[in-house]
Known about the structure:
By secondary structure, this protein is α/β, with parallel strands linked by helices. It has helices at residues 7-29, 37-50, 67-72, 75-81, 106-111, 130-150, 165-168, 178-198, 203-214, 228-248, 277-297; strands at 59-65, 87-93, 116-120, 218-223, 255-259. The protein is 52% helix and 10% strand. Helix 1 (7-29) crosses helix 6 and helix 8 (178-198) runs parallel beside helix 10 (228-248).
Amino acid sequence: MASAPPLRIWLCSALLAVSVVALLALQRHAPWLEPKPEPVITKHTQRFLASAYGGETPIRVLGLGSSLLWAATPPAIMDEIALLPGICWMRMTKLGTGLGALQASLTPIESKPPNVLVIEENLFFADSTATDQLRDDLFLLMRTAAYKVTAQAHFAPPRAYVELADQKEPLPYEEFPQDKKKQLILKNANNLQTIFSHGAINLALTDRLRRLSQRGIHIIVLELRRSEFVEQVIAPQKKRWQEQLRRALPPGPLVNYIASPHFSQQDLYFDGSHMNAAGARLFAPWWAAQLQQLRDER
């Protein structure tokens, strides 16, 4: 019969585990390591909602979205839309699904709400749990260490947060050769099937939006359609997920669901999901028309 490890082994193991968790917590929360997006997002939201205008007060439309919205509305297009009379429009975005750091904008929104709040569909996925975050932090720590030791590009950690990068620059992307692009689009579509199949709805977010609508705030849930091929691949999973979302946040007089147009040209997307510059130019007049309609309905 094997004997149990000595007590000091258990103590050393426990100390090692606590040290790893503490190191990961330091990596996530230490203020001197890298800038965090939440304070910047809070202040930027507050400035927009508190800004004063002379003459006729325009309707304030605030958009929150993922990189799909960033790609579809680069800063040049944002500048054009800012010239529309009677409309004050701003959007903030983040990478990936879930609300993430944009959670920091909700408190200013609830304190001094816009006339219209646009929420892109991707943000309604539930954010990662604490266990998921711990796993991601451990993976990032190992990847960073491997990059420092080997200097191999594929180990390079993701870019650090760049303050309000989406307000200043278009979404960075690369146009791939046609054969590689097909592989990328197919991989993207397969990943989206998994996300829509297993992604839970952020019920805390839907509850907060329902309460905002009860205060007279117009809520718009925006679906940014991907390329025709990707939409066909993910259609069954996406439809089921959208039905769950509508049950959690039912449409009504002040809660509307809208979808971007179907663009059949495949070359308007650099990966099958995110619009390139040509796609954004086609999207711009449609979005301007939506904002003008919101203004005219008030």
